[in-house]
Amino acid sequence: VKGMTRSVLVIRAKPGCRDRLVELFSRLQVLEKASRQEGFVSCEVQVPVDDDEHVLVTALWASPEAYQGWLDNPVREEMRPALDELAAADPEPRVYEIVEALALSQS
């Protein structure tokens, strides 16, 4: 994991639309489409336990270039209008380099 790239996208949903936004990710198969991008490793859609308006999307990429490939992928623009309908504002993207990591194996 060290040396890989983590993309973080915070989306604020319109009031009362968070669950619909999460369902839309599933219906549009956003994660599945991202997984076809070269350099994709994993992706998650998360919601806070104490907030009903935010959605957090994180993904692990082999490199910044792999993530840029996803950003440049035309399939994203095809999905954008449906996502924009439920978002209260433009998503807030950030990209991080993983400099240290630890994972415990599941027994």
Number of helix segments? Answer: 4
Give the SSE order as H and E letters.
EHHEEHHE
Write down how many β-strands occur, each being a DSSP E stretch of 2 or more residues: 4
Low-confidence stretches: none
Structural class: alpha+beta
Strand content: 25-35%
> Gyration radius, to the nearest Å?
14 Å
* Global outline: globular
Strands side by side in the biggest sheet: 2-3-1-4
Mean pLDDT: 94
The proportion of residues forming helix, as a percent range, comes to 25-40%
Largest sheet: 4 strands, antiparallel
Distance between the termini: 20 Å
Q: What is the secondary structure topology, with strand pairs?
A:
Elements: E1 5-12, H1 18-27, H2 30-35, E2 40-46, E3 54-61, H3 64-71, H4 74-86, E4 92-97
Antiparallel strand pairs: 1-3, 1-4, 2-3
Summary, kept brief:
It is built from four helices and four strands. With 107 residues, it is α+β, with helices and mostly antiparallel strands.
Question: What report would you give on this structure?
Answer:
The structure is a single chain. This protein has 107 residues and is of the alpha+beta class. It contains 4 helices and 4 strands, in the order E-H-H-E-E-H-H-E. It has helices at 18-27, 30-35, 64-71, 74-86; strands spanning 5-12, 40-46, 54-61, 92-97. Strands 2-3-1-4 form a 4-stranded antiparallel sheet. The chain is globular, with a radius of gyration of 14 Å. The model has no long low-confidence stretch (mean pLDDT 94).
